[in-house]
């Protein structure tokens, strides 16, 4: 009788796995970059040598090539091929790729997470009720940004060092956004604001779990990370309960006001009011209020987390460049005197140096790749002649576009804070060289709010504080595979002594 040792079984399993999982590339497909490690393919370089690896692949194989990572062939796109993804949104599915990383369909159980119809609704909400009401919301934003700064930073007559600056900025940014989402009455409750503030951070660990099990099957990783949710574990649940408890009395109060005042009822200027005006809104029906609270959570996730990330990156970029901070202070002081401290949207638009600085900070966000899509048509042929099959995962080579020498010169890797001042190129404008907010008709509709809130935060901050890095150097972001998170190094805050 033949007996097999555990090692022999393992070897046989690995051979079978290699045969099954060996990538097969069609003749018309983008070239597959050769690799020397069976099964693992390019995974090591993808995780630990990312920037150099992608740069060398681009130089050798051009702007359209494939790699084998975590048991899956992925096609990396840059140049014209990247732009073609934005121009053909019906062929490339962003939602399924995003849900693969963060399974919102299992977390936001009352609205089904993000599907095509819900994404259209959220985009319309952001476009019309957030970015579209900037002129109305700007007063709320500056009022609560100042309150947030007082709470999270406070008096810095003696220098104050803060290490987890992202957490601090996230707290500051959460306050005005909470007021825009549910109104001042509901947002006066600290636990509600805290839930909005912590939601993205509580879901963050799911984003960084490496899909090791995808070497066996691409769906196995998603199955395992969602398994606890099938047995009742859901980090969203407690936040949903808090928000429901706080908004329900506000909803009932507004409904009473509608009955009393009729046509003379004055609508509130927040997202909650917008949801209350939807045909399907009836908070007395089972699951209806949880459904709309989950809609609020989608807005929370895409607004607070992204805006606070942009703001904290800009803060670190300022802290390491005192000469830039001084120049921006002069602009801020001029505008502050003109508007007597009460900033309007027109005043924010006058901050041309600050706008250029914010755009440059976003250009240096640092993600090597971003915005994965799945090919959902039968196949797609790019203008360069390469064809990708249905089901292929494509990822956009962000770093290549944002650091292109063709558009940004030979010093494209350098941080040039004021290069956009006279270029008619605001931080909200998307084009083929500036894809931080995506592109085409699906470009982020909330970018106008995000950029202007970031600018207003920095404007108020620069007038109030000086900031420097504890190390005295420009701090680099932390790289996790092809993605970045803000530095954890200390920032030193001091009160600004105004010019007399």
From TrEMBL:
PROSITE patterns: CYTOCHROME_P450. Heme binds at residue 444. Its cofactor is heme. The chain crosses the membrane at residues 6-21. One of its GO terms (molecular function) is iron ion binding. It comes from the Eukaryota. Keywords: Heme, Iron, Membrane, Metal-binding, Monooxygenase, Oxidoreductase, Transmembrane, Transmembrane helix. CDD domains: CYP503A1-like. Belongs to the cytochrome P450 family. This is Cytochrome P450.
